[in-house]
């Protein structure tokens, strides 16, 4: 009783504000300690960097194919036979795409590479004409700027050469990683489809009995959120690619198949992807003439109308329940930290983190006793009526 009546108990132990500040200080201290010993985890980070790509690719394909396997299993087909049937159909579609779609795209790529010098000369001529018409910079200023660039290049020649060699070695390493990922992802995918439904059960066996229900609900919610997002984004991206490829082909845009195929993966980046996909098509449309430029804008308008009013609401809905500003902040942060992969995977990663933090906060509310349930009338009385 004496301890509870002491000033220390009333000022610190029985103060909600003091407890929150103390928890915040402990959290910051834990983060600071982690930054000091992060180098100990570097081998584990390197290991994850090696094994993560095939598992990520297999996970994405798992969310696309698992509903089909489950549907076939409900129709009376054994799961192993359903998986094999899905693999055969997917391989057949890949072969069909290689036979029917790849040759025209390859022809357009080859034509673009051959015509690139002429496009470069046209761009230089356009720049020269614009330079002749402008009065802001004189020819002596431009020559001085060109001489400074030449001097900078000559001084940095060795650095650029070593950087180029390092870039070539990085490209070779990246190609090797892509080959390994493509070769191992189907194997991982097969076992995910075969044993994926047992994953939650295996994880819950490692969790204390009293916590299994809460952890199971959290894993189920994470699976639903990530699965719906991956399925929706990939479906919308494929639809966007087909719409652009068809639209560009109808209007006769040069290299339309390339630009349409490029628009699909770029559409995986919310908000910014469509704007980036617009640039090369608009440039090529401007090169072909004003009519083609207007036709490209019309194709973009039709695609935007179909995507925003029909495809996205039907496929995606509002499954992640994220504010647009939150999405933009996540894209900027994840892109700065992890590059293109962070831009693509940042949204589902944030959704998973949001679920975990929300669950932890609910648990903290229950065990801390700092958040007693109050009716809206009580809160209004404490804060004051609205004026």
UniProtKB/TrEMBL annotation:
Family classification: Belongs to the autoinducer-2 exporter (AI-2E) (TC 2.A.86) family.
Source organism superkingdom: Bacteria
Keyword Transport in record: yes
Membrane protein topology class: Multi-pass membrane protein
Protein name, entry field: AI-2E family transporter
Transmembrane segments: 20-41, 47-69, 81-102, 171-193, 234-262, 268-287, 294-315, 327-353
Source organism of this protein record: Lacticaseibacillus suilingensis
Pfam families, per database record: AI-2E_transport
Key words, A-Z: Cell membrane, Membrane, Transmembrane, Transmembrane helix, Transport
Annotated compartments: Cell membrane
